[in-house]
Amino acid sequence: KTPLMVVQGANDPRVKKSESDQIVVALRDKGFAVEYLLADDEGHGFARPVNQMAMFAAVEKFLAKHLGGRYQADMPPDVAKRLAEITVDVSKVEKPKKIQVQAKPAVHVALLPGTFRYSLRVEAQGQSQSFESAISVQEKDNAWVVTETLKLPQGEVSDTAEVSKADLTLLRRSVNQGPLSLTAHFEKEKITGTMTMAGQSKPFEIALSGPVMADGPATGPTLVALAQQGGESWTFFRADLLRQQAQPCQVTILGEETVAWESSSVPTTKLEMVCGEGEDRFTFWVDRSRNVLLKSSGQSARMGGVTIHRTLLP
């Protein structure tokens, strides 16, 4: 019964947190000695010095415990604090629950036309940047056209999604970001498209086993519509076009909550969206009186573990 210490970056694109969770649960349930470090701000390998020092301190103590010998118990306050934060109580680790996408959700509501401006704050590895974006929702024949324009220091990003009026599933999507452009067409059992980088184009195809909804710029407007319709939860896929894979998601209505916005208190419907095996998790607050997304907050492993906060501008 060899003891094991599992060290995991929550945003590791190669070894997923869910895989480490499964290892910890299996060893714990078999009675093996297992310890678990999980850093929510790391990917593949620990980059932050404080995380590295905390890990070294834990490993030294772990080896001394199981092999015999001494270890240095004293450490700087910031390292001790971080070690406590990334040390996981293995008795509380659960096997990840896989999201099973059911039949296409029955949707009976429309998107809200208009242009909505948001402030965005993006946090990664202790750094924070702020931007502004505009989301436009317009009618076009049998579809809603949702376009988000984001101004970044390196240039403007435009992301457009065409959404079916009948069921709010995605029909088409196009992304333009400097030298990168993507086009995608959504069918019943596959997504086909083209990725162009610096003039070089490459076609792609992604297999589907369920509907694609609430993706890209259409995420907020679609969730507002689902909140209006009511119900408890919905399952569907999102398309990770860069990694060329479909990601199962579940949206759950958590209830009603009053949140502060500008100088007022706003009654909202609170929703949570969990994708993959929990590596992407976002919370949304929908203004119940105006039927508009008031704010959202969450962390995305598929975007390198960044935390994104979005707030409606007056």
TrEMBL record:
Species annotation: Thermoanaerobaculum aquaticum
Pfam family, one: Peptidase_S9
Biological processes per GO annotation: proteolysis
Swiss-Prot/TrEMBL keywords: Hydrolase
Record-linked InterPro entries: AB_hydrolase_fold (IPR029058), Peptidase_S9_cat (IPR001375)
Record GO terms (molecular function): serine-type endopeptidase activity
Top-level taxon of the source organism: Bacteria
Residues in Peptidase S9 prolyl oligopeptidase catalytic domain copies: 1-69
SUPFAM superfamilies attached to this UniProt entry: alpha/beta-Hydrolases
Protein's UniProt name: Peptidase S9 prolyl oligopeptidase catalytic domain-containing protein
Keyword presence, Iron: no
